[in-house]
Automatic annotation (TrEMBL):
Keywords: Cell inner membrane, Cell membrane, Membrane, Transmembrane, Transmembrane helix, Transport
Gene Ontology biological-process entries: transmembrane transport
Matches recorded under Pfam families: BPD_transp_1 (PF00528)
Main location class: membrane
TM regions (residue ranges): 26-52, 72-96, 108-131, 137-156, 197-220, 240-261, 286-308, 352-370, 382-402, 414-433, 465-483, 516-536
Subcellular location, record wording: Cell inner membrane; Cell membrane
Region called Disordered, residue ranges: 1-20
Protein name from the UniProt record: ABC-type Fe3+ transport system, permease component
This protein's GO CC annotations: plasma membrane
Residues covered by the ABC transmembrane type-1 domain: 73-256, 342-537
Entries under InterPro entries matching the protein: MetI-like, MetI-like_sf
Length: 551
C-alpha cells in the first residue's frame, strides 16, 4: 500500500480530476477581468484624464506657487486630523462596551453607531447646519467625526474582542492601576487596529465633500470643495485639474499607509485567539459605559435637531415641507418635484446596487481564492482605490472625458448608476471578503473533484455561507448609493436630478418652504438609512456573527 496510488487511477480519470483545476483558474481569470475592466473604464480613464490635464496645461506649477493653494491644503489636512482625533477618542469607549461588556441593548448601540456612517453627506451637513447655524470649523470637524465613529468602533472593537483579558488582569494583580494596565498592556495590543482606523478616518475626512460644501460655503474650503467650485462656478478647468492631481497624490499616500495598517491589524487578528471575553460591568466599567452613552447622545442630537427643524415653520409646527415633497417645484427652484427626484434616486441606487453586487462578488471570489499573497494584496489595493480617491475628482474626470463619448451617452441617465456603483463596490468587497476567505477550501476541492463546475461549487459551497453578508452588502450599498452626492452632482441633468442633489440646491436658495422641503427630504433619507441598518442588525443577530466585515 506504500506505492503511488496514482497508478491505480486510469489516465482518463486523472484527466477529469485535473480539468476542474484548469476550469477554476480560467473562471478566476474571467471573474477578475470583469471588475478590473469596469474599474479601468469608469475610474482609471477619468482619473488619468485629470492627471494628464493637470500636467499638460501648465496649471500645476502656477497652482503649486499659489499661497491660497497651500492654505486650502493646510485647512484640508488640519480639519481631517482634528476630526480623526475626535472620532478615535469618541469611538474607544463605545468599542470597549460592545467588545468587552455584556449589556442589554447592544444591538441598538450598533445601529445608533452605524447609521451615521451610511447617512448621505448632504444630510449630515444640513443636520449640523440646523444645529450650529452658519458654518464653522467646529461644525465641520464634529460632522466629519460624526460620520466616522463607526469606523473606529468596528475596527478597534473587532480586535479588542479577540484580546485575552488575562494579560490585563495579571498587570492589575501586580499592582498596576486600571489606567496603567490599559496603557501598558491593552493599548499596545490595539495599536494595529487604531492605526488602521485612524488612517481610514483621516482619508474619509480629508475627502469629505457634502459636509464641507454645506457647512463651509465660501469661508472654509477644502481641496474637495475647491475643485468643485472652480469647475462649476469659475470654469477654471486647468486649476481644478491641478488641484485634483495634488489631492490624488495625497490620497494614494494615505491609501498606502492605510493598507499597511490594515495588514498589521489582520495579522494581529490571526495571531489573537477567538475568545468571548464579554462580561457584566463592574467597578470602573460604569465610567466607560457613561462615556459611551454620552457619545451616543451626542450622535442623536444632530438627528433630533433635523427632525424638529423639518416640522418647524414660522407659524409653529407643521408639515409644509413634507407636503412639498409631493408637489410641483416652487418658483422655478428645481426643474423636477422632490418626489420625482426621490424616484430618480431610488432607480439609480437600485441599478447601482445590482452592478456593484456583480462586480463586488466577482472581485471577492478572486481575492479569496488567489493563492499568491502578493498578487492578492496588489489586486485588493487596486480595487480599493475608488474608496479613497475623491468622488469630486472622479466626477470632474467624467466631465473631461465625456467629449469622447457619443452624443446620446453624454447626458444619459445610465452613467449615474455606474458612477454610484464605482463608489459602493469597494464597500461590497470589504463586507464579503472576510466571509469568502473563511470558507474551507477543502469543501470546494471536494465538490470540484466530484465534477462540479466552478459555478456550482460557488452556489453549493460559498453561497450558503455568504448569504447573510450578501444581503448586508446589498443593503449598505443601496443606502450609500442613495445618498451619493459628489460624483453624481457632475452628471445629473435637470430631468434626472437625484434627491441629494435636489436637497443641496434647495438649501442654497432663499425661502422658508425651500428650507423645510430640504429638511423633510433629509429626514426621509435618514429614515431609509436607519431602516437598512436595522435590517442588517437583525441579519447579524440571526446569523450569530458580525456581518459588517472590515472597513
Amino acid at each position: 500500500m506504500a506505492h503511488d496510488r496514482a497508478g491505480l487511477i486510469s489516465p482518463s480519470t486523472r484527466s477529469s480530476q485535473r480539468r476542474p483545476g484548469r476550469a477554476g483558474r480560467i473562471g478566476l481569470l474571467v471573474a477578475a477581468v470583469v471588475p478590473l475592466g469596469f474599474l479601468l473604464l469608469f475610474f482609471g480613464w477619468p482619473v488619468a484624464a485629470i492627471v494628464l490635464r493637470g500636467l499638460g496645461e501648465g496649471g500645476l506649477g502656477e497652482t503649486l506657487l499659489d499661497v491660497r493653494t497651500w492654505r486650502i491644503v493646510g485647512f484640508t489636512l488640519g480639519q481631517a486630523a482634528l476630526a480623526t482625533l475626535v472620532a478615535v477618542v469618541a469611538g474607544m469607549p463605545v468599542a470597549y462596551v460592545l467588545s468587552r461588556l455584556d449589556l442589554p441593548g447592544r444591538g441598538l448601540i450598533r445601529v445608533l453607531v452605524t447609521v451615521p456612517f451610511v447617512l448621505p453627506t448632504v444630510v449630515v451637513g444640513i443636520a449640523f447646519r440646523a444645529l450650529f447655524g452658519d458654518g464653522s470649523v467646529l461644525a465641520i470637524v464634529l460632522a466629519n467625526a460624526f460620520f466616522n465613529i463607526a469606523v473606529v468602533v468596528r475596527t478597534v472593537g473587532g480586535l479588542w474582542s479577540h484580546l485575552d483579558r488575562r494579560a490585563e488582569d495579571a498587570a492589575r494583580a501586580l499592582g498596576a492601576s486600571r489606567l496603567r494596565a490599559f496603557t501598558s498592556v491593552t493599548l499596545p495590543a490595539l495599536r494595529p487596529a487604531l492605526g488602521s482606523a485612524a488612517a481610514v478616518v483621516f482619508l474619509f475626512c480629508s475627502t469629505s465633500f457634502g459636509v464641507v460644501l454645506v457647512l463651509g460655503g465660501a469661508r472654509f474650503r477644502t481641496l474637495e470643495t475647491e475643485i468643485y467650485l472652480r469647475t462649476v462656478q469659475l470654469l477654471d478647468l486647468s486649476g481644478a485639474a491641478a488641484l485634483s492631481l495634488i489631492q490624488l497624490v495625497a490620497v494614494v499616500a494615505a491609501l498606502a499607509a492605510g493598507g499597511m495598517a490594515r495588514r498589521r491589524r489582520e495579522t494581529a487578528l490571526r495571531l489573537s485567539p477567538a475568545v468571548n471575553s464579554a462580561r457584566k460591568p463592574v467597578g470602573g466599567d460604569w465610567w466607560v459605559v457613561g462615556a459611551a452613552l454620552t457619545v451616543l447622545i451626542g450622535l442623536l442630537i444632530p438627528v433630533g435637531t433635523l427632525l424638529i427643524r423639518s416640522v418647524s415653520t414660522s407659524q409653529g409646527f407643521g408639515l409644509a415641507g413634507y407636503r412639498a415633497l409631493t408637489g410641483e417645484p416652487e418658483n422655478g427652484t428645481l426643474a423636477v418635484s422632490a418626489w420625482d427626484a426621490a424616484s430618480n434616486s431610488l432607480r439609480a441606487a437600485t441599478d447601482a446596487t445590482v452592478l456593484a453586487m456583480i462586480f463586488g462578488v466577482l472581485a471577492a471570489i478572486v481575492l479569496a481564492r488567489t493563492r499568491r499573497r502578493g498578487i492578492a494584496q496588489l489586486l485588493d489595493g487596486v480595487l480599493m482605490l475608488p474608496l479613497g480617491v475623491s468622488a469630486v475628482t472622479v466626477g470632474f474626470g467624467y466631465l473631461v472625458t465625456l467629449g469622447a463619448l457619443p452624443d446620446e451617452l453624454r447626458g444619459s441617465p445610465v452613467l449615474v448608476p455606474f458612477v454610484q456603483a464605482l463608489v459602493i463596490t469597494p464597500l461590497v468587497i470589504r463586507i464579503l471578503l472576510p466571509v469568502m476567505r473563511a470558507v474551507d477550501d477543502r469543501l470546494r476541492q471536494a465538490a470540484a473533484s466530484l465534477g462540479a463546475s466552478p459555478w456550482r461549487v460557488w452556489r453549493e459551497v460559498d453561497l450558503p455561507v455568504a448569504a447573510r453578508s450578501l444581503i448586508t452588502s446589498a443593503a449598505f450599498g443601496f443606502v450609500v448609493a442613495l445618498g451619493e452626492f459628489g460624483a453624481t452632482s457632475f452628471l445629473v441633468r435637470a430631468e434626472t436630478m437625484t434627491l441629494p442633489v435636489a436637497v443641496a440646491r434647495l438649501i442654497s436658495r432663499p425661502g422658508e418652504l425651500n428650507t423645510l422641503t430640504a429638511y423633510a427630504a433629509c429626514t426621509m433619507l435618514m429614515l431609509v438609512t436607519a431602516a437598512a441598518v436595522v435590517l442588517v442588525e437583525r441579519i447579524r443577530v440571526s446569523g450569530g456573527s458580525d456581518t459588517m466585515g472590515e472597513f
